[in-house]
## 1
Amino acid sequence: MSTDYAYDEEGHLWPFFVFTLTSIVTVPITYSLIKSSRNDPAAALKRIQTDYKHDQSAVVDTLRKSEKRKDGSKPWLIALVIAGWAVMGYMIYLIKTTDAPVQHLWNPYDILGIAESATEKQIKKTYKMLSLKFHPDKARPDASKNETIDDLNRRYVEISKAYQALTDEDVRNNFIQFGNPDGKQGFSINIALPKAIVSDGNGKYIVLIYFALFGVLLPYLVGSWWYGTLRRSKEGVLMESANRLFKEYQDNIDEGGVVAALSSGQEFEDLFKGDKADAGLSKIESKVMASDELPPKEKKKLEDVESGPRRKALALLWAYLGRIELGDATLEKAKFQVAPVAHALNKSFNAIALAYMNTAPLLASYFASQRLIQAIPPKASPLYQLPHFNSAVVRAVEGDSRVHTTVQAFMDQPDAKRRSLVVGKGLLTDAQYKETIAYAKQLPYLRVAKAFFKVTGEKFIIPSSLVTLVVKGRFVPPGSEKVPDVTPIDLEDIDPAEDDLDAILGRKKTKKVVGKDEKGKPIYEESAESEDVYPPLASSPYFARDHSPRWHVFLTDSKQGRVAVPPFTFVSFDRPIYESDGKTPTFAMQTMKAQFQAPPQAGHYTFVMHVVCDSYVGFDTKMEVTLVVEDASRAAEMKDEEEISEPEEDSIAGIMNAAKGAPTKQRVVKDEEDSDEESGTDDDEDDDTSDTNTDTEPEN
């Protein structure tokens, strides 16, 4: 038996090989590009409408675009994907249009043109006729059919072999065992490459390409990915940076201390390599020390840091937060570069603070995020978030008060008073004032209306049950006018139907409740189920990144200074925030829910609920909420008592017995549907806030 190697001369097999090889590279890259685009919520989100530009807006815009190109879809990757899909498409075209060589099985009956049921006599007769017809001495080639003598000879040989396979015992055995009258045959291996590629000395280059692809490039890519994941934490920062932040953690740290701790990140060493660490450092420090925007405490922290990348990073951070002009294009660019790096490091510090479950460091981390995004120094006035507001304008509003004025408080004042405070010589012009007011009226301030606890489908909360914290609030931009009153139905949280498992588990959003019918059952809006609604991108003129605002809801124990329920983060909501114009607020009631396990003991538990926005200063809410956990046996007794119905008012016997002082006969309702029909209420639809918490006014 021999083995022959045949190359794909007709071009039938090699398109399969090229298609497979190309798809191995193209499909994963395509998936990564699609995934990265979907993970960028800023790609399709709206922005606050304003024409405000500060002196360094061009630098910030350039850095934003540069970062999008770096983190997003790189042009060469897009070109590679397009080329890959083009090659794959062409290979599919070749596969469909190229006729594959047909392999025919050798069959003596087909060659003789007889049926497999033919007798030996019929076989001999047919062979005799064909041999006379195709015998080389008698047959003549037909020119019209392009026949040659060789074709007739091959035909005669095939006829002879077919006859022998059906009559000669040895030849017949070869045909039965090996499928060929000549016995065991060799086989050929078709290589899915044109012969020209591996012939004439080209084979070594093909081997070299294979080795480069599968022996060098593929292990390198896999190794880079693997060791890259080991070098970074799940928050996306370098592990060495996370270790340094862990050492900087303190239980009494404030937002200024968080900023100082963030400067220890290793990412700054990569940003300021070699001589970059000392270039312009003295100039930055001199301007920072001379600035009145930073308190002496923060300046002292800068002096205590040793020279090097960390000292320059901290100096630039204070220059960024204080909006200090450095007078040098390179330093100005570096000033805006450090803030996004520090913001990314802050995510790791937030995770460390959450691991300790102490309230102060966790809040300091969130407040530091606000300051970094808005470029406002720690303890500085929230009014710096407004366009054109500088220290002179802020002093005109706040005067000598040690308590800073929030954007909401400023906007709540009458227009005439606001104008008299900030419009004038050395302050704002009339056009700047109008631009500021229009800007402030678009900021997404979440005003909490109510917060309560509940257990889905139950009227009471028992120990260790799964409790849902329901927070109801509306987006009311500062200075909003004609804000509609909150209706009672907006503050209720209707339980989904018992058979609607997707709604109970939160896998789908329920329709908005617009009222109740005469039996107390909810009436839903006719529109389709709502989709996730994202607020506009954080308005951050100085922050060189696009950032989608996040709201963090968590419970703390004020007496112990500890976090009782870890934060739940909300990036989207279930109702539209603005009308189609993107500026007019809808004032729709939003619902945020967080589930946690109730304490194992019955009692009244008072928590402080924090609703913190990571993007705006002073847009936070703090209020007390009380969780009432009933003993399981007591809750069962209370439920039984509520299920006992009152005597029917139209029952004559009941009225007479009541008049005589005789005991009335009470009926225990066992069927929940019967109880609903008689009382006009539904246990699943009752708002049990009065039983589970004490409402207080939100403290802003």
Note: The chain has a mean pLDDT of 80.
## 2
Amino acid sequence: LLMDNNKILAPVFLLGYLLPVHALTESAPASEFILEGDFLIGGLFDIHQVSDNLSPDRPEVITCSRFQVMRFSVEEINNSTNLLPSVTLGYEMYDHCSDTHNFPSIFNLISVNGSIKPWNKSLTETSKVIALVGTYTSTATLNFAPLFMTDLIPLISYGASSSVFSKKYNFPSFFRTIHPNKDVIKVVLMILKEFNWRWVSFLHIDDDYGRDGRDLFIKSIEDTEICLAYTKGLNTYTNYLNIFQTLISLKVNVIIVFAPEWTAEDLIKAAIKYNITNKVWIAVDAWSLHKTLPKENGIRNIGTVIGIAEPILAIPGFRDFIHSFKALHQQEGMEKDKGKFCEQVCNCTNVTAEDIIHADPSFSFSVYSAVYAIAHALHSVLQCGAGKCNSNVKVHPHMVSLLSFMQFHGPLGIIYFLHFLNIQKTQHFVCFISFFLIRKKRNNLKICKDTEWSDEGSTTCHLRHVEYTPYSSGEAVVIILGAFIFVALAAAVSVLFLHNYKSPVVKSAGGPMCFLILACLSLSCISVFFNFGKPTAASCVLKYFPFFLFFTICIACFLVRSFQIVYVFKIAFKYPILLSWWMKYQGQWLFIIVVFVIQTILLIHGYSSAPPTPGNITHPESKTITLCCNQSFEALSGFLILFSILCFFCFVFSYMGKDFPKNYNEAKSITFCLLLLVIIWIIYATTHLLNHSSYTCNLQKIGLCVYSIQKE
């Protein structure tokens, strides 16, 4: 992803552009650093590192991997039939070994016919380079970036993370494929807060990158309880012994090292030399995945290194590209380019292909993304599609920058790896961090109990407030009062039915079955009273047990009634024997008894195998504990299935009676009540799942369209 200012500016699409490796290496280029093409991309890579006060004829080899990634990316794009079809990309890459001695190569990239020209309003003559990939350090990029900003030539850095480049007014055509320093500092701060580390030091390389990281860190801890005990810039002449003596005198055990790999290597080697032990070293992404430091003799004693790094993403096909190219072309390129400043070669004869592939895990994919971002931008400018591009379009660098890169934007999702290098055990641990860390057992870390909470940055713990719905609360009083009113209404209806028991109306309504239904509806309300107060083992059982048992009997009665109505009108004339059997053996009562026995067995088995227990819901960021009942869904599944089956068949039979005469409207009433029951339970289930952490309204259908609201 091409990113800047926390925005995705250009997505890099990789699928569909990969060809067999043999297609990428059929012909050898004249040089590893130069490739002709319709459009040229510049590249600046720190293959060697030369100090400015030393002679440039003795460079120190740093890495041979990044510029090989750019070569591979260009070759892959040129062999693609989807990206930039019929258009070839070329490159001119330079070994940026010095921040002050490499300006000839910079001028060569922006020159027009060998001359450096000021802003050309007519745009008749522009640089042959449409974009530049590079460079690794913020200081180097800051030195030459203004030269490219003048003509809005896209400059895509794979390593310059200083926040100064986020100022689009000064760097309008600058982009990067890594996260800026402020994102790294956020993760560092998160680590410090999680482990409750308050007394820290900040060591940084003494350049634009390091000073920017220091300033961002100081600003980020202004409103926290984290104290910066000591900070120091590191360079070639740093006296590490004085630094360590100061840290020991200040009793600082947490050391943040904001520096590239070569500076961090000098620091860690000095710590080994001076026998610095039992420290916590926080490594930023520039050196957290260092390959050789874990193998240093004596490194087991320095303490623990916690490293922050971006996810390591493999580049498909790169391994085969390096294996096939290294033996065939490296020596030829060396002989041709020998004698140029910084040697302009990658003398990696003593380095294996595997060493090149794994040399730079943090930044190789950033180079790959930068090249593909340029290719996609050029693809849009040239209006490519259907296997060809518009050859009539005159491409200028500012078109690539303004037209293509800025049309892609969106939120930046950051996922960092936390790389634990446990020096004591010489083991590597890798895990994700998003909001808080999983490994956090430290001797000096104060962790609050589950029943306690702590303010951010605080060293004290406070008891959480316990929340539940007491019987005296307003909502509890209203619900309990509603339950009593319903029971009173059921009792009144029962008295009325009893007084007119021998009337045709009562007989047609079900006779004695009416009293069973009203009694079960009243007993179902028992569950309401156990939804308030502090949960206990008994209340957690009685919270649902009476409802599921007695309301199941109600549904069984409704099922019998709807079946009898449908049977009389639609089935009796076909199967008269069944009606006689049903009447002889009192089939309706037999069915209700069987359902009662089965549901009782299922309830007893479910609650005995996994009884509900009092529990609580506690969120780390909350100051409260919500009391509740822990109920296993598997224990409820048996009688819930039976309950659902009865409801289903009851609905089917009652729906079959929707076209009966008006005098027989009992089936229609049952259908309506069941529909309302289903709607209420869907609302309850949805609300329960979405708001399980707070008080949830438990809507329960009780009888003929009457329900009570139970507070959970």
Note: The chain is about 40% helix and 15% strand.
